[in-house]
Design brief:
46% strand, mainly beta
Length: 308
């Protein structure tokens, strides 16, 4: 899985070698990235790259995206499954997805949870159509294991997830694996314990409307946060957006392109990353007590990042 974004992260580092555009009240210094050597020693590098590419293709080919489709209606303290539903089950107010497939959810859980726990090679698509879930003791959405999970915000829908200060996990939407969010609907997330949305791997937001608040970081992808669209408003947080992986050189970056982001009332930094921050286009407005962008390696397109 983690091979997939190696190229993207490498691009971040190469872009950082160019003269970045600094924003007001921020001391970001661009670091240099070495160009690829064209000497005979490149043969060894090419061999390694080929091996990595082969590994990535093999991993991708081993992923499972099922034709399985099912739906569930959330009814307060219970869940009604579609007839013949496979790969999805319910016990009280806990809905569990256990196999690859496409699952459409509607309705409300007053104190419940949506759990994804599928084989490591399985991909899961969840279509949210006016879903509201709150939880008094844990995360309303918990992705325990998957090759990747995509949350689809159905056009015109408003989907709301709220945890409490007693949440035993680190986020309102908590994922151990890759998480992608996209669609033409709205996602409202309140992280009352720690984070609003967190993944131990990558978070990719492609489009949609987001209204987020959190005690700590609002959008926290340990490996990366990649924005390629969407309208995101973070009303309060510790840090707004963060990537923190220090163990792998190609991880720990934040990138944004064509996204409209407003980070309000950040008690920490607006955007924080350990490897690099790249903003190619779109608009990011940040109100933070500390730095707007906290990363030594940054490439910020002129006029795209503003501290207010």
């Amino acid at each position: 899985m983690k091979h997939r974004i190696a190229a993207a992260a490498a691009a971040v580092l190469m872009l950082a070698s160019a003269a970045g555009c600094s924003i007001n009240n921020n001391e970001g210094n661009s670091s240099s990235a070495a160009d690829a050597s064209q000497t005979q020693s490149a043969a060894d590098n090419n061999t390694s790259a080929s091996d990595a590419s082969a590994d990535s293709k093999q991993e991708k080919s081993e992923s499972t995206k099922s034709d399985n489709k099912a739906s569930a209606k959330l009814n307060g303290s219970s869940v009604e499954l579609s007839e013949g539903a496979v790969g999805i089950s319910a016990e009280g107010s806990v809905l569990t997805i256990s196999a690859a497939g496409e699952y459409t959810l509607t309705g409300t859980l007053d104190d419940g949870q949506i759990v994804v726990n599928v084989p490591k090679t399985d991909k899961v698509d969840i279509f949210l159509e006016n879903v509201t879930v709150s939880s008094s003791a844990t995360a309303p959405i918990r992705i325990e294991q998957a090759d990747g999970v995509t949350l689809h915000l159905v056009e015109g829908s408003v989907n709301t997830f709220t945890d409490s200060a007693a949440n035993d996990l680190s986020a309102c939407i908590s994922a151990k694996d890759d998480l992608t969010i996209k669609g033409k609907g709205t996602l409202k997330v309140t992280g009352s314990a720690k984070h609003a949305i967190k993944s131990s791997n990558d978070i990719k937001i492609k489009n949609g409307v987001f209204e987020l608040s959190a005690v700590k970081t609002a959008i926290y992808g340990e490996d990366s946060v990649q924005l390629t669209g969407g309208s995101i408003v973070i009303t309060s947080c510790g840090d707004g957006i963060k990537a923190s992986n220090t163990e792998e050189a190609e991880k720990g970056f934040v990138s944004s392109e064509e996204a409209e982001v407003e980070i309000q009332n950040a008690a920490g930094n607006g955007i924080e990353a350990v490897t690099g921050v790249t903003v190619k286009s779109g608009k990011i407005r940040i109100h933070s007590l500390k730095q707007a962008v906290n990363c030594k390696v940054q490439e910020l397109a002129e006029g795209c990042v503003e501290k207010f």
